[in-house]
């Protein structure tokens, strides 16, 4: 489903990833861990093509990233749900509209949109905040809105960049349970986190990065 | 793609950025009004200059002592020319009578003449459509070559002045209309570009969620079209107000204004023109932005 082969990414001042190779199977849920600056976010950005690799090959589902044309990138992104580290919520839209945006972009009509958005909000326990605006929510709530937006279109791949960075331990556990449920329905999930507690006893694969180098993997 | 959502986004943005949009609408209104007034002025001046050649004619002065059949032949030859509207024979006695009538109180100066010094003449009137200096020049050359025609006279300078004035006015009119149209496209272009940059973060989110270029562009193009159309509608209101509140009143007070031609129906073209200019401005703006 997600295949990295000798992938490197260099920036002007440093190398974010160096010859990274790994494979995530279809329907798998895995974690990427490592300290801040280890290249976790860059690795996710390469998957949803916010960045292009300098070396190596990346295959996402049936897409070969180095061969993909600019005009096809939106189609690839529509197969992926992303929980961004900085949430990327629109402050001029309420929670409902922020979540609905993922469906509107996929061409959903008004009729099918409403139940799906409310289902997604129910999963993250924010059904009662549908009319609120992001600026009126706490960091944790904003993160859950971001998760709802990532899962609402039932994408085949979900990427989450520090999805529990702003939430308390109970909410963190709830979010991981949510991801497990979605994974159980067949979605492939890759979560980047530096929080070891998040994947402890999950029995999921954990890929380790350190200063851009892939340093091995474990089962949590 | 759900276009109703694009319309909703455009409406939201039009309201949210109402002041900048209102400014653009008023600028387009002013531009369209100036364009319309320019077109009307050129049209009226053109119509006025077109009426002037009605007085224009070519005079063929005939040789002395031509027989009646010879005069008939000249009249027929001149009348067969495609661009000739009317041919009129003026015998020298009638010409003298006309001259005396023109001179009125000073006609006594002609009393000293023993014999009528004026020649017989033929007055040739041309069709309005054939009033170009080149056409008239070629015709006079042909008329001069007819046997029995001693001299040909026409207001060469008058004709070329009128013609140059008409061509000049049309040229100036076209330049003004093109410049103002380009200006209005630029207003829409700049407005959409500003709105686009103000929404950069929002657009970045759309892109990362997988929005197509069409999904991102459609609201901006709708916005440009609405701005242009609104400018056109206000321009139409302005032109109709000018006609009903100013021109009609002036016509009642000053008869001189009755000669003004004001095709009110044509002013209904302003909203579609504004609409089109708005879309062009938006499309050019979106097309030139890298995102």
Q: Which features does this protein show?
A:
heterodimer; A: 220 residues; alpha/beta; six-stranded mixed β-sheet; four-stranded antiparallel β-sheet; 10 strands; B: 291 residues; alpha+beta; 9 helices; 67% helix; elongated
Give a verbal description of the structure.
The complex is a heterodimer of chains A (220) and B (291). Helices cover 32% and strands 27% of the residues of chain A. With 220 residues, chain A is α/β, with parallel strands linked by helices. In chain A, helix 6 (169-184) links the parallel strand 7 (157-161) and strand 8 (188-193). The model of chain A has no long low-confidence stretch (mean pLDDT 90). Helix content of chain B is 67%, strand content 8%. Chain B is built from 9 helices and 4 strands, in the order H-H-E-H-E-H-E-H-E-H-H-H-H. Chain B has a 4-stranded antiparallel sheet. Chain B starts with a helix and ends with a helix. The relative contact order of chain B is 0.16. The A-B interface holds A 48, 50, 71, 74-78, 80, 82, 84, 88-90, 92, 101-102, 104-109, 149 and B 1-2, 5, 12, 16, 202, 204-213, 215.
The H-and-E topology of chain B, N to C, reads as HHEHEHEHEHHHH
Major β-sheet annotation of chain B: 4 strands, antiparallel
| Backbone structural class of chain B | alpha+beta
Q: Please report which band the strand proportion of chain B falls in: under 5%, 5-15%, 15-25%, 25-35%, 35-45% or over 45%.
A: 5-15%
**Order of adjacent strands in the largest pleated sheet of chain A:** 6-7-8-3-9-10
Q: In DSSP terms, counting alpha (H) and pi (I) runs of 4 or more, how many helices of chain B?
A: 9
Helix content of chain A: 25-40%
Helical coverage of chain B, percent range: 55-70%
């Amino acid at each position: 489903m997600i295949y990295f082969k000798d992938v490197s990414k260099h920036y002007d001042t440093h190398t974010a990833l160096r010859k990274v190779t790994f494979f995530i199977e279809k329907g798998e849920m895995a974690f990427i861990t490592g300290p801040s600056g280890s290249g976790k976010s860059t690795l996710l950005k390469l998957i949803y093509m916010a960045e292009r690799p300098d070396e190596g090959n990346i295959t996402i589902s049936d897409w070969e990233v180095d061969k993909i044309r600019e005009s096809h990138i939106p189609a690839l992104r529509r197969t992926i749900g992303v929980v961004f580290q900085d949430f990327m919520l629109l402050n001029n839209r309420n929670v409902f509209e922020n979540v609905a945006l993922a469906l509107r972009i996929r061409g959903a009509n008004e009729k099918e949109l409403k139940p799906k958005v409310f289902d997604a909000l129910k999963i993250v326990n924010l059904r009662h905040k549908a009319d609120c605006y992001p600026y009126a929510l706490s960091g944790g709530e904003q993160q859950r809105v971001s998760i709802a937006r990532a899962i609402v279109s039932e994408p085949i791949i979900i990427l989450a960049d520090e999805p529990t960075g702003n939430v308390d331990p109970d909410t963190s556990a709830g979010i991981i349970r949510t991801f497990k449920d979605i994974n159980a329905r067949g979605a492939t999930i890759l979560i980047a986190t530096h929080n070891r507690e998040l994947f402890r006893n999950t029995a999921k694969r954990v890929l380790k990065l350190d200063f851009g180098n892939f340093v091995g993997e474990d089962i949590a | 793609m759900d276009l109703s959502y694009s319309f909703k986004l455009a409406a939201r943005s039009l309201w949210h950025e109402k002041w900048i949009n209102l400014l653009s609408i008023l600028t387009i209104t002013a531009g369209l009004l100036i364009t319309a007034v320019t077109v009307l002025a050129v049209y009226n001046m053109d119509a006025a200059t077109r009426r002037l050649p009605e007085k224009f004619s070519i005079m063929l002065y005939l040789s002395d002592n031509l027989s009646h059949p010879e005069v008939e032949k000249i009249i027929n030859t001149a009348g067969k020319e495609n661009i000739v509207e009317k041919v009129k024979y003026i015998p020298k006695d009638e010409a003298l009578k006309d001259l005396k009538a023109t001179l009125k109180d000073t006609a006594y100066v002609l009393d000293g003449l023993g014999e009528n010094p004026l020649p017989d003449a033929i007055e040739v009137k041309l069709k309005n459509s054939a009033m170009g200096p080149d056409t008239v020049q070629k015709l006079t050359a042909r008329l001069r070559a007819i046997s029995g025609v001693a001299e040909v006279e026409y207001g060469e300078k008058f004709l070329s002045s009128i013609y140059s004035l008409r061509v000049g006015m049309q040229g100036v009119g076209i330049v003004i209309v093109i410049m103002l149209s380009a200006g209005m496209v630029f207003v829409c272009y700049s407005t959409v570009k500003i709105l686009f940059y103000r929404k950069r973060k929002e657009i970045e989110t759309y892109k990362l969620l997988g929005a197509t270029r069409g999904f991102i562009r459609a609201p901006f193009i709708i916005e440009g079209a609405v701005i242009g159309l609104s400018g056109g509608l206000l321009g139409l209101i302005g032109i109709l107000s000018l006609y009903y509140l100013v021109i009609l009143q002036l016509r009642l007070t000053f008869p001189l204004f009755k000669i003004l031609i004001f095709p009110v129906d044509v002013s209904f073209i302003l909203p579609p023109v504004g609409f089109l200019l708005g879309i062009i401005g938006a499309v050019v703006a979106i097309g030139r932005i890298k995102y």
